Amino acid sequence: GDSVTQTEGPVTLSEGTSLTVNCSYETKQYPTLFWYVQYPGEGPQLLFKVPKANEKGSNRGFEATYNKEATSFHLQKASVQESDSAVYYCALSGYGSSGNKLIFGIGTLLSVKP
Amino acid sequence: GPKVLQIPSHQIIDMGQMVTLNCDPVSNHLYFYWYKQILGQQMEFLVNFYNGKVMEKSKLFKDQFSVERPDGSYFTLKIQPTALEDSAVYFCASSLAAGYQNTLYFGAGTRLSVL
Q1: Are strands A62-65 and A75-77 parallel, antiparallel or unpaired?
Q2: How far apart are CA A95 and CA A99, in angstroms?
Q3: Residues 11..30 of B with a Cβ closer than 8 Å to A: which?
Q4: Quick one: which of A36, A23, A19 has its CA closest to A78?
Q5: How many CB atoms lie within 10 A of CB A71?
Q6: A108 touches B at CB < 8 Å
Q7: Distance CA B83, CA B108 (A)
Q8: B19-38: per-residue pLDDT in tens?
Q9: How far apart are CA B24 and CA A35, in angstroms?
């Protein structure tokens, strides 16, 4: 079945350093790939999504490229800030029988120190 | 952005009791979902719901689980009876439309502790 594997946390960085959270996926379908972010006390919210292979998504300085050949969707940011501290989830959805069934990775807890 | 509200944020009950988790989805959304996350594990799909009916459910959606949204009020997940392995955070989500490109909007979750 479909699956998503991502960097296990926690990840601790200093402000201004770069971030990479690895995400790889397995599916026989043509998925849309998502990054969700969950801040403390809140639910997961969409960071961005990419429906087509070889395209890049970005938001708030974060970006990821849908790499169909490598089945990867790594999240990157050049310079993190303390406000980026959160849990980041990689997810996919394939063309299913109904609705939208997201398959999530385990989540990566990022802590950014000032 | 659009908000999904979940009530309560934490529920503690004894094994064998019934529990109802409540979700107030985004007002014009038509598709509703429940996900389950056991501590330290992935968030997993339980069920989705549209037009008064379950559209799809996973193997985690046991016979003791049921969902409904009577008269456009709360979208609820009922567990009767509860078991120890039901202890988890349950996330409700809603979306305007179906389809694999659509965005789901999540609530903050209800932490269920079954003793």
Answers
A1: antiparallel
A2: 9
A3: none
A4: A19
A5: 16
A6: no
A7: 23
A8: 999 999 999 899 999 999 99
A9: 24
Q: Report the sign of the C-alpha dihedral through residues B57, B59, B63, B64, in that order.
A: negative
| Plot region of B38 (φ>0 → left; ψ -120 to 50 → alpha; else → beta) | beta
CA distance A21 to A107: 10
Q: How does pLDDT run along chain A (114 residues), one tens digit per residue?
A: 889 999 988 999 999 999 999 999 998 888 899 999 999 989 999 999 999 999 999 999 999 999 999 999 999 999 999 999 999 999 998 666 555 788 999 999 999 999
Hey, what are A57's tokens?
A: 């998504």
Of B4, B42, B44, the CB nearest to A43: B4
A53 to chain B, any CB pair closer than 8 A? The answer is no
CA distance A46 to A25: 18
Any B CB within 8 A of A46 CB: yes
pLDDT of residue B58: 92
| Token pair 């303390």 in the structure block, residue | A82
Provide the terminal-to-terminal Cα distance of chain B, rounded to the nearest Å. 36
Burial class (CB in 10 A: 0-12, 13-18, 19+), A39: middle
d(CA A105, CA B42): 6
pLDDT confidence of residue B66: 97
